[in-house]
Amino acid sequence: MSEYEKLSICKDAQLTLRKAREDGVETVWDRFKKQEPQCGYCELGVSCRICVMGPCRIDPFGEGPQYGVCGADADIIVARNLARMIAAGAASHSDHGRDLVEVLHKIGEGAAPGYTIRDADKLKRVAAEYGIDTAGLGNEGIAKLLAEAMMEDYGMKKEQITLINRAPKQRIELWKKLKVIPRGIDRETSETMHRTHMGVDNEYVSILLHAVRNSLSDGYGGSMIGTELSDIIFGTPKPGFSEVNLGVLKEDYVNILVHGHSPVVSEMIGVAVDDKEMIELSKSRGAKGINLAGLCCTGNEIMMRKKIPMAGNHLMTELTMVTGVVESMIVDYQCIMPSLGQVAQCYHTKMYTTSDKAKFPFMEHVEFTPVNAREQAFRIVKESVENFSRRNKDKVYVPTAPVRNMTGFSVEAIVGALGGSLTPLIDAIKAGKIKGAVGVVGCNNPKIKQDSGHVELIKRLIANDILVLTTGCVNVAAGKAGLQVPEAKEMAGPGLKEVCGLLNIPPSLHLGSCVDNSRIIVIACALANAIGVDIDKLPLAGAAPEWYSEKAATIAFYAMASGIFTVLGVMPPIMGSKKVAELATSGLNDVFGACFAVEPDPVKAAQLITNHIMEKRKGLGLDV
Amino acid sequence: MKVVVVKPERCVGCLQCRFACSVAHSISGSPYAAPYEAVLSKPRIHIGLTKDKDAFPNKCRHCDPAPCEMACLPKAIFREPSSGMVLINPDRCINCGMCAMACPFGVVRYHVYSSNKTAAHKCDQCIARQKEGRVPACVEVCKVGALLFDDYNKVMDRATDEISSLVYLGIRSKEQEKGPYQSLTAYKHRLEELRRKQA
Amino acid sequence: MDAVIIGLSAAGLSCLDALLKFSPQVKVTAISEEKYSPYCRCMLTHYLGRIVREEQMIIKDISACPPNVNLLFGEKVETIDLLKKSLTLSSGKKISYDKLLIATGANAVKPDYYDEKKRTFTLRYMDDARKVEQHIKDSAVVLGGGFVGIKAAYGLLERNVKVEMIVSSPYPLSLVLDEKTARFVEKDMRDAGIVIRTQDDIAEINMKKESVAVSLKSGIEVYSDVVVVGKGVKPRVDVARKSGIKIDLGIMVNEFLETSAEGVYAAGDCCETMDVARKVPWINAIWPVAVEQGYFAALNILGANTPYAGSIGMNSLKTHSFHLISGGVLKEEEGVVLYEKHFPHLKQFRKLAVRDNVPVGMAFYNCPEDAGLYINLIKKGMPLNADPVKIVNGELSIADMLRPF
Fold first, then answer.
1. Does the distance separating the beta carbons of B54 and C403 come in below 8 Å?
2. Residue that terminates a domain, selected from A178, A203, A234
3. Cα dihedral value C239, C243, C245, C250, nearest 10
4. Of C291, C318, C373, the CB nearest to B104
């Protein structure tokens, strides 16, 4: 096995990694190696740098200090750190959602040229959920009122956020009993920061319960708003085909990559690259045209809606430039490695930042607002085309051919594929053709061989007749492995294979970006409501085999709080507190009907999940 | 013979070496499982603090002749012939405390071993890891170069070469010698000075 | 070269090991009066406490000795002919030597009332421990408040034996410790369940039925199964004296541990060297000192001319509840300043005696981490270069003393 095969299962990654070494490009794997072994205190979550009486750490071996300067023990420190992690994740998704609320508001005010309402039906449906009287209002009028109602979700005017009502009644009752119903999206994040300030909440269960509330303010708040508004503004995704891996970059085209999470920028770049004038310009510069491809969740957003191909997921972002054919990369925010600008220095790639929130070294800042987005997009695309001539032919290397990937499975699309209701899915589950469903979500993490956790887990699950729903970086992993095309039904168990064959869908369905984990929640809620039980009774599970980000921690928490058993492939920093670790891995079961498991081995994780789903089937009186 | 050479002026007091040492000498060898073992593995390297609040990594020097070995009544402390390391056989130790009395560097502690026996406890230079071709755990985790694994004479030779070349070049003091965190160190010293003045 | 070692305990063994380490081919004959493989006599109290088994006390695997080493057990040296450089053994056998080490050690001091028939024993040899073990059931009287007596008392406690200790001075360890430090030890001992009768002594011992009746000078009568006497040791120098080697308190040696006779060296409990703290010739009859002297003697026997700087009295007393490390001289005297600090909440106490900026005595109670450094400074007669007040206050750590800048 070559050293590159130890780092990633993807051929394109292995080949470009080799070239990166030859080109003298330092990658995330190199930096990871230099960081190893990583800080043990931090890995256990027992280091605290919240205040400057510290920094403090607890000696897990009992010889050194057992209390921080303030008197916090390991339980308090671990709980505070975890809560802050969840707050950061919730803040990220929710702030992303806020940007879409802002665009919607600007559309409502007629001040967002280039943006419009693409799914008016959904706009009305969501407006109805917010109790908005849409009678006699045009799209713009509704948009303005809905945006304003959502702004209130972010504030402190309401007793609870609106979309929490999508959860089953039993679940809402449980949350009320536990006092974890989120009241305002920003409020809960703010309160987490307050509670974890020195000398506020110092009871680890109390801290963690609030962390649950904070995560719910993301899952049923910021993230859900982000998904719903993206659908309303950019169109609700419909099934269709696209392509994945580095092969989507084309040697004789101007290649433009969009990277980050928000569809607000990438949508407009998409408009600009389709512009005839721009295409003509590219041809005049010797290219055959302009090729747009996505990375990370921005890539997921435009793949879901526009079937624009994806060049890679998190750990591929640096390697895209190693191909030497990327004229420009346009980033918005989240999961953009600060090293990217440095890598671009080795090639001709132009780097653009677009958000005031997210600036990077060695990148040019071109600020996008709903008002100026169109002209800025054209400016960047034009500059990118001009950059084609600077390409160094000696450095060009596109290692592989692209792989087909089916995408676009929004909740509406799934219901549509099922003929208008979830009943056929429920029937398939009841009949045991589909044993259950698992959301395989999350990131890449150099601690785990790239994509190995995702792909192996999905293969095992579908072989056990378990339907897989993917979001985020998992989409690219599953796509590259050929698991997300209808033909992949051959890898599924007999029941799932039959269902996939009938509906002509893959056994692993792409639901969108990481914000779109809210789609999985919506499906879970809808299933529970249709059957008339709480979510924790359903044969569902979640998995984040290669998670790295604070957002993933938040997602895991709201999934767990919703009653979905979640298996993590990377250890969260909680093991320093025996009490918190015990709570997370079993104690939570008694509270939320779900808990966490940590299992880096995808084979064992698949077994854990399958066993769990069989248990839940038994609980519902279904055959196993 | 390679030994762990300590460069105290580089230590920033992160205590990673202590953590790694505990893990390396635990049964599981895993940072996640080690704190859950029935008998906790204790670190064999100690980070002292000077009056100026500078960290001072302190561990067994594996002296030859070793005062602890000479003071050991049951001959639980012995020199491993192939590596030259001074080791403790906890099964033989009678916990009499003579080695702590004899050790001029104050590196011997008394802890419960996984066999449930209390015995003298000190650095074994990660002899088990060395047999696997790995460097001692404390050296591996030290990110600031305060712990090196090298032939002591070679380290001294290098230092001598460096100083003589500086003298040749007419450079009297090397800024780096003051350590990698000058401003923080200076700040800590100021704070300590102030505290003393106020006392 | 033929090297001969008389005595195969701490000093003799250490010398043998060092000879073999530096000169693996050297011809060595070692003569021991014991019937047993070399064992550590300091562990006899642990043996009594059933902390170690007999075989665990053996500290030398004699079967692993190379063929150039000749070990004679159960043999006694009768005379040394310094002119002919030969020894006569009790068996009549004669052995000649080029270099000789006398490491005959010391015997336990036996008071007037010492009588094994009245189950009164010392604790110096394996056979002594066996005799004590043979008679002991559940009670014992320990005479003497020195380190040996205290360690014997703690050993017997481990055996669930009721221990009464008779100490002639006002407090235990009075010869090595000052009163304040000693009182800490005394309190710990009482807390552990040892009955201590200070300023008292044995007047008479009689057998009453199955018990030993010990009449004390204060008039109290104490009953027990055995009496263990720990009243110190006196050097065994008879053979050396007979052969004409100069004797003072013990066998006199120069800085190379060579006696008045050329080629004859002495080490261990029989040998008198400079006490660095007292600045007078002295015998510090403790195991680590004997080992060290044996090592230095070997270097000099091999011609490495390595001076021995002298020793100090030092000891470590470690129980379940405390760890005391003391060394040097802690008594008030002209020119010596004592520094001390007690931290009741930490159960720590540090005491340091300093003469002209040079530490001469110390007692560290429950702070073994710092102790070794000061023991070594006292042993080497090195100046402190630091404020002793700060040292006993724990303000200066070992890091300050060791840090090179």
1. yes
2. A234
3. 20
4. C373
